[in-house]
Amino acid sequence: MKLVGKHVDKTRAGYAKLRPEDDEDMWHLYNIIQNGDLLRAPAIRRVQNVSSTGTVDSQRVRTNLTIRVSRVEFSAAASSGNTNEASAGQQPTSFAALHISGRVAAENPHVKMNAFHTLDIEVGRDVRIEKDEWDSIALATVEESCVPGRGAEVGAIVCGEGTAAFCLLSQHMTVVRQRIDVSIPRKMSSTSSAHEKGLSRFYEAVYTTFLRVIPYASTTLRAIVIASPGWVRDSVMDYIFKEATRTGNKALLAVRNKFIKIHVNSPHVHSLTEVLKSPEVASQLKETKFAREGIMLDKFFKMLGSDEMRAWYGPDHVRLAADRGAVGTLLISDELFRASDPRERKKYVALVEGVQRKGGEVLQFSSMHESGQQLNQLTGIAAILTFPLDIEVVEMEERESKEQVISEAEEQIDSSTESMGT
Amino acid sequence: MSGASTPVRRPLGAEKPDQQLLDFVGLNLQVEESQIVEEPPRVSLAREKLLEEVTRALQIGVDNGKKGVNLVVIGHVDAGKSTLMGRMLYELGKVEEKERLANERASGKMGKSSFSWAWQMDGTAEERQRGVTMDIALNSFSTPHRLVTILDAPGHRDFIPNMISGASQADCALLVVDASTGEFEAGFDRGGQTREHLVLVRSLGVSQVVVAVNKLDVVGWDRSRYKEIVDALKPFLLQTGFQNSKIKFAPVAAMVGVNLIDRDGPDGAELRKWYQGPTLIALLDRLEPPARDITSPFRFPISNVFKGSGSATGVTGRVCSGAVQTGEKLRIVPGDEYGIIKMISYDGDNIPWAAAGQTVTLYMTAVDPIHLNVGSILCSPTSVVPLATVFTATIIVFDITMPITAGTSVELFHHSQDTPAYVSKLLSTVDRSTGKVKKSPRVLTKGLSADVQITLRSAGGTGKAYSVPLETFKTNKEMGRVLIRRGGETIAAGRWHFLVLLPWPLSHGGKRDDACLT
């Protein structure tokens, strides 16, 4: 993403003008734009004019529209895109779609005030976002999204016998580009040729899909992971290179060193977390955000197993821990910041800022990653504490302090009535 | 009255085709011959008659009074499961000498002559090359009183899904352990498959187990070694939930074939000195088939689909409950398709009907094979298995290192189906030793019994089902059992007891980006 212009004043009100460049930028915009913001972007609108004689003429007008956002919709692999063979091996075109609906907030000759419109955000077209308050999270997202050269990507094929899922992992997103399912007859004592035939049909499907959906020749693609239980990954890789040699696919043969074979325990997409944890991939992708997320979440679960008092989750519990300055690492999902209620968002922003002030580490998980999905299931917020705290004790303390406040208030009322009486 | 009106209509109706025919003849065109439609097979017996016959057959046994049992062969990788089975089949005359010689020669050529017997079971090129069983091998043999269907399971941990698929079709288990020094311990230690397999088969409802202590020839038929292994296994078996009376042990040596059928040869001389107990085959002959549920509606989970001869598609599996005969129409779940049984094959022979407990191949016709998938369930059209996306189950948590929390990604195993899911809610836990109930716990740790809600993950853009056919444990025991695994480790076993039949978007709490991932 490119930052075209930004101005945020003392009251934190202001605007930012951004130019999205790829799918991931769409995801960032999805996280930045909130209900109530003013958004200005180019749009195509059908305009109808009724002339004085009563004839209606309608035309499409390209115009810039400003809308007051009331709904934001994102889908990672919405458009079919150009998946033709010609573009295979190159940088993929944009697949994500971001639709923002709302009422028009600034009139122009074509569109009346308060008319509804849905803006489709497009790659390469500037978007101006105006907010009444830019909080630290939103500003950090803008900053992060505009760092150049962060396009490290990993292509992954998670496969089992007869099934394969082709995924593209980038800093903030995991997109399953394609799944294939080939039914393979299981081995039988008499006729084993059916099984073998099924297998070769499967490898063929994997190879053609691979060529189509994984941009293997792209320079930003750092690694191509083939993960599976058993030995399917060996066979798949052998087949890919056998076919590449046979068809003389030089581009593919040249990137042989990008391929990594990883053992995982299940052929489902969620074993991508295992892929990211494996030493081979972790060393390649050290310091990338998604690898770190996976490692921290794993650490959290391990902590939950070994020392339950140092691993807390759930907004209320984490807040209590943060109040006591106990949070060492805060794991928070971006889903929480998308809360439709701005007060809710403010609460989480305050929590993050509080933890950061006390020197704690904050990891904002992307819910487009497997790890983020898992965190979302776990209420979206979790914390590894620096010292053990017993939830029940803390809750009791809270209750007591609340009771104390109430009783103090009562006393005050009592004393005030007494003083009134005298 | 009616006679007045009908004569007018009848000639009209009768005349029309004739006229058409004449026109065609006049045009010198050939009338298209009507396509030969294969006559669908007919149901030969009335429902009540069928049940009567099945009940009678179950009591006296089929085929000379032999009763059928399904036996899953389990154990750690390289314990010698396939070798034991291959040798067994040979000893029982199920393998021809020619075939044995061919295997021996071919395996010797690859430098794997020790796998010669296993090749009888491991048919695929990859299995033979790697010397590891990768999928269930189905075979059968008969003992004096039993017709044993064997399911030779893979021992390698990566193929546990296949092993589960086989174990869910079994009534009894044959555990093979390697007696050679260090090998038994490797298989029995934490992380070894001996333990996991036993826990798995027990949770899938297998209650009888025969333990074959294999490779005793390697340790020189050491009696103390045999005793040591028996003493180590027995407490664990009891703890896993097998009854003492249903655990049997036998010392064997599969490679040389001692104590499988007999121990008369020179190789068995050492064993004869201290062992007078029954041979392995004698123990298998005493396996008691469990009670078959033939009155419940028909249920048939598919474990294999292949192209049969002609237009029929073969599906293999075990009948969970009910009975079925050729010509019957069956519903395929999930999906909205029906198929007709053209043929039922059991142990290579065609049979007129199949009943609960039998592992059979049904040849289905009048259905596109695309609708028949491994993991689907065939059921009677009058009583269809419900599909569920969200359900609650009572689970027992096994020995796990990382606790289960809400949101844990798991794989769900139900018969031959392997579905990604997550634990969406922890409802309550019961401490098994104290009986203390705790509502909405934060985590589940090992040894707990708990009520949890499980939600299936969507399969994304593909047409794969995001709901699985399930029945509660109360309705149908065989259909209500489930295994939960995570990261290659079986973490819990459970029973459904409540299915929430929700349309999918609701069950996901309306989350926006669920569909993009997974």
UniProtKB/TrEMBL annotation, chain A:
One GO cellular component term: Dom34-Hbs1 complex
The organism's place on the tree of life at top rank: Eukaryota
SMART domains (UniProt xref): eRF1_1 (SM01194)
Residue ranges constituting the eRF1/Pelota-like N-terminal domain according to the UniProt record: 1-147
One GO MF term: metal ion binding
Gene3D superfamilies xref list: 3.30.1330.30, eRF1 domain 2, Pelota, domain A
GO terms of biological process kind: cell division; meiotic cell cycle; nonfunctional rRNA decay; nuclear-transcribed mRNA catabolic process, no-go decay; nuclear-transcribed mRNA catabolic process, non-stop decay; ribosome disassembly; RNA surveillance; translation
Broad class of where this protein is predominantly found: cytoplasm
InterPro entries found in the cross-reference section: eFR1_2_sf, eRF1_2, eRF1_3, eRF1_Pelota-like_N, Pelota/DOM34_N, Pelota_N, Ribosomal_eL30-like_sf, TF_pelota
Cellular compartments annotated: Cytoplasm
Disordered, as annotated region: 399-422
Keywords for the protein's UniProt record, in alphabetical order: Cell cycle, Cell division, Cytoplasm, Meiosis, Metal-binding, Mitosis
Essential cofactor(s): a divalent metal cation
The family this protein is said to belong to: Belongs to the eukaryotic release factor 1 family. Pelota subfamily.
Biological function: Component of the Dom34-Hbs1 complex, a complex that recognizes stalled ribosomes and triggers the No-Go Decay (NGD) pathway. In the Dom34-Hbs1 complex, dom34 recognizes ribosomes stalled at the 3' end of an mRNA and engages stalled ribosomes by destabilizing mRNA in the mRNA channel. Following ribosome-binding, the Dom34-Hbs1 complex promotes the disassembly of stalled ribosomes, followed by degradation of damaged mRNAs as part of the NGD pathway.
Name of the protein in its database record: Protein DOM34 homolog
Lineage: Eukaryota, Fungi, Dikarya, Basidiomycota, Agaricomycotina
UniProtKB/TrEMBL annotation, chain B:
GO molecular function: GTP binding; GTPase activity
GO cellular component: cytosol; Dom34-Hbs1 complex
Main location: cytoplasm
Superkingdom, taxonomy of origin: Eukaryota
The reaction(s) this protein catalyses: GTP + H2O = GDP + phosphate + H(+)
SUPFAM superfamilies assigned: EF-Tu/eEF-1alpha/eIF2-gamma C-terminal domain, P-loop containing nucleoside triphosphate hydrolases, Translation proteins
Subcellular location: Cytoplasm
Any coiled-coil regions, as ranges: none
CDD domains referenced in this protein's UniProt entry, alphabetically: EF1_alpha, HBS1-like_II, HBS1_C_III
PROSITE patterns named among the record's database cross-references: G_TR_2
Domain Tr-type G: start-end pairs: 66-292
Signal peptide: none
Gene Ontology annotations of biological process type: cytoplasmic translational termination
Keywords noted in UniProt: Cytoplasm, GTP-binding, Hydrolase, Nucleotide-binding, Protein biosynthesis
PANTHER family from the UniProt entry: TRANSLATION FACTOR
Subunit-structure text: Component of the Dom34-Hbs1 complex, also named Pelota-HBS1L complex, composed of dom34 and hbs1.
Protein family membership: Belongs to the TRAFAC class translation factor GTPase superfamily. Classic translation factor GTPase family. EF-Tu/EF-1A subfamily.
Protein name as annotated: Elongation factor 1 alpha-like protein
